[in-house]
Amino acid sequence: MRPDLTDEAITSPVPQPLPPIAPKRWICCHCGGAGLDSYGEICLHCEGLGFC
Hints:
With 52 residues, this protein is largely without helices or strands. It has no helix or strand.
């Protein structure tokens, strides 16, 4: 047996909380990010949010 190996368990570090991940938002290709269609109605593609 190698002298540098022991039977002791290796402990892992305390897990750290992960930083929040911002969602990727893409500008709506139907309304251009305005949330309204050309008639002034809510864009049905993005539901008026302006991003998909």
